[in-house]
Design brief:
With 370 residues, the protein is an alpha/beta fold. 41% of the residues lie in helices and 17% in strands. It folds into two domains: 182 residues, Periplasmic binding protein-like II (D-Maltodextrin-Binding Protein, domain 2, 3-Layer(aba) Sandwich), CATH 3.40.190.10; 173 residues, D-Maltodextrin-Binding Protein, domain 2 (3-Layer(aba) Sandwich), CATH 3.40.190.10. The protein has 16 helices and nine strands. Strands 1, 2, 3, 4, 5, 6, 7, 8 and 9 form a nine-stranded mixed beta sheet that branches. Helix 6 packs across helix 16 and helix 8 crosses helix 10. The termini are far apart. The relative contact order is 0.17. This is ABC transporter substrate-binding protein.
Length: 370
């Protein structure tokens, strides 16, 4: 896979005016550092825009610590693939060390993570709805000269979530209503400790069509319906907070069936892969992106790294490496009546940007029996 280092979309933006002035022999203002120059400087492709006196005061090369970027991502298979496909190639291209740290992706925990981390964090991978919320809360930022609607990050990865089950315990492939049928299928179920995905799944199990999920959740009646459905399953639920944890609960036998990233199942090696089936008909697609932390918004290296991750070449590289869909042969073996993989249900980031806070409050109250 060949990675494009300088295919940044802003190369054809008004920032080009600064370059044109130099081409005409006019000196640019030292007080203005365009986003283009900041990012290219972060990749080590342009000298810093500092007066000679300032450069004389800082003649020493960067230390190893200064060349390191600490980032937040998801531990397990996701981080493993990112390290091989994205982080290592970037380190070779930009001579920048990427140091990943695992986290749960919750925007409510971001401030706590920042305070508890001894070294400054540059960027974090999270759901697109969290990116938008983090930007509104001023926890995330991009370069101050970028006034676009995506200046706090844009989707750069998509991950499918589906129901997985232990095939040894089922004669036929179950669906979401079967997920609630503890009389016919006794055992524990695993769900995400977050209203996102969980409330949608509850409504699917209660018979709400996929194309009506968010119109239902936009009403008090629909939200009540989702929580009443969850209440039926409460004693049997095992909660997870990260993609890695979702996979581990199932593979360790902690639950009979559960919601899990499909890659956590498809990525299992050896004979254990055949232990689990996946419900492809009503799976969800969750979009993720990278946000630059506000404290790193003036760090050209952080801006360059995230902009590079957002480029199509890097998005495609991760999509190719992350196991998401089965082969046709495997699909027919898992579900003989399914001739093709139906489209996933897209999680509505706009809905969750507007409603996550209030639904999270109610969700936490419900979990703690308040």
């Amino acid at each position: 896979m060949r990675f494009t280092l300088f295919s940044f979309p802003f190369l054809n933006t008004p920032d080009r005016q600064a370059v044109s002035s130099q081409e005409r022999g006019q000196a640019p203002s030292l007080g203005v550092l365009s986003r283009r120059r900041a990012l290219l400087a972060g990749l080590g492709c342009l000298p810093p825009l500092l007066p000679a006196s300032a450069m004389a005061r800082h003649p020493a090369p960067q230390s190893k610590a200064a060349r390191s970027l600490h980032i937040l991502t998801f531990s397990g298979k996701i981080a493993g693939i990112q390290s091989k496909i994205l982080f290592k190639p970037y380190e070779q291209l930009a001579h920048q060390t990427i140091i990943p740290h695992g986290w749960n992706g919750q925007i409510s925990d971001l401030e706590h993570v920042i305070k508890q981390t001894h070294r400054p964090l540059a960027a974090a991978m999270m759901e697109s709805s969290s990116l938008r919320i983090g930007c509104n809360l001023k926890l995330l930022s991009r370069h101050q000269t970028d006034s676009s609607i995506s200046n706090c990050g844009q989707p750069s990865a998509a991950i499918d979530y589906a129901m997985a089950w232990d095939r040894a315990r089922f004669d036929a492939a179950p669906n979401w209503p079967d997920f609630w049928d503890v009389a016919r299928h006794p055992g524990r179920r695993s769900l995400r400790r977050d209203p996102r995905l969980t409330l949608e799944i509850a409504l699917l199990a209660d018979g709400v069509p996929a194309n009506a999920l968010y119109s239902a959740l936009a009403t008090t009646e629909g939200v009540n319906r989702a929580f009443l459905k969850l209440e039926q399953l409460r004693p049997y639920i095992v909660w997870w907070s990260t993609p890695e944890e979702a996979g581990h609960i199932l593979t360790s036998g902690g639950a009979l069936m559960g919601c899990v990233p499909t890659g956590e199942i498809l990525g299992i090696s050896g004979p254990d892969r055949q232990r689990f089936g996946l419900h492809w008909q009503q799976r969800f697609l969750v979009q993720y992106g990278w946000g630059v932390l506000t404290a790193a918004a003036r760090n050209p290296a952080a801006l360059a790294f995230v902009s590079w991750l957002e480029q199509p070449a890097q998005q495609q590289a991760f999509a190719n490496a992350w196991p998401s869909l089965p082969s046709i042969t495997e699909l027919n073996a898992l579900a003989p009546r399914l001739s093709h993989v139906p489209p996933a249900i897209m999680v509505d980031d706009t809905f969750w940007e507007a409603n996550l806070e209030k639904l999270s409050d109610r969700f936490q109250q419900w979990i703690h029996h308040v």
